[in-house]
Amino acid sequence: MSNNKNTVYSIPEFDSRANNLMGEGKRGLLCITESDTFGADEEMTLKKLISAIKYDFDKDIFFLKLYKGHSFSVGTIPVQYKDIIAFGITPDQLGLNIDYKWYELLKFDNSRILLSESIRDLNTFPQKKQQLWVKLQHMFLQ
To answer: Candidates 3.40.470.10, 3.40.1550.10, 3.40.30.10, 1.10.357.140; correct CATH number of 20-141?
Structure first.
């Protein structure tokens, strides 16, 4: 006899006052990072990565700095996106209850999500940045 129990997960709403969303997002890319690990060096690295995939940081992407401990459901964010790259953000912070590995491309009905270690970690460990670069090329340049 099987004991099936229903599990209820709360879906955190997107709070525009608590989350800093920027950019025009003309090409439907949403980049998310934690605000407490995002300084000037990380901003420069992110801008270089965006430029390397032939996107414009201000015009082509939405950029969200998520405050530490905050979470929301990507389904409630008030923008249209087709791709998400999350730096140092786990799926549960995005309202997703899934198993994952860093640098694994997750495909959903109308979008793709790439989970990466934080940009600070990428700057510290070049091999991690190389792993990300291989996936970015696959997503955007092939």
So the answer is: 3.40.470.10
Residue range 36-55, pLDDT digits in tens:
889 999 999 999 999 999 99
Token pair belonging to 34 = 């934690």
The total of other beta-carbon atoms located within 10 Å of residue 81's CB is 19
Read off the pLDDT of residues 87-121 as tens digits, 9 standing for 90 and up: 999 998 998 888 899 999 999 888 999 999 999 99
Structure tokens at 26: 């003309």
Name the 3-class secondary structure at 85: strand
Q: For residues 81 and 32, is the Cβ–Cβ distance under 8 A? A: no
Helix axes 126-136, 40-52, angle to 10 degrees: 30
Look at residues 22, 29, 101 and name the one whose alpha carbon lies nearest to residue 63. 22
Cβ neighbours for 128, distance < 8 A, ≥ 6 positions apart: 102, 116, 117, 121, 122
Residue 105 tokens read as 């491309």
pTM of the model: 0.85
Residue pair 115/91 in contact by the 8 Å Cβ criterion: yes
